[in-house]
Amino acid sequence: MRKQINVGDAESMAINSLMFLADDSELLARFLALTGITADQIRTAAGEPGFLAGVLQFYLGHEPTLMRYCEATGTDPALFQEALRLLPGGRQDID
After folding, report:
1. Would residue 93 count as lying in a domain?
2. InterPro entries, per this entry (predicted)?
3. Helices (H) and strands (E) in the chain, counts
4. How far is CA 51 from CA 3, 66, 72, in A?
């Protein structure tokens, strides 16, 4: 049986994922290039609705990055999609 997560868990996962990529200059550069924000805008952007969902989408959009994070943190990759659905900007009407 898979672990059920709530919105708080989803937010924590996204924040931890953001910290993980911030500690990796290669990942951070790719994230900034894809999102169009600058490093000094991250703190402000993180408070915007949809930003945390965007962090999870970044991982879900590149499986090697997702697996690197999951292996380093012991996170079940399946939880990323579930967490994304719980966050503003990540909800999807299609299951």
Report:
1. no
2. DUF3572
3. 6, 0
4. 24, 17, 23
pLDDT value, residue 92: 58
- Angstrom CA distances, 37 to 41, 70, 79, 81, 86, stand at 6, 25, 26, 23, 24
Structural domain boundaries enclosing 57: 25-86
Q: Which amino acid is at 49?
A: P
Number of structural domains (the chain) is 1
66 contacts: CB under 8 Å, gap ≥ 6: 59, 60, 77, 80
Q: Has residue 4 been placed in a domain?
A: no
pLDDT per residue as tens digits for the range 34-82: 989 998 898 888 888 899 999 999 999 999 999 999 999 999 999 999 9
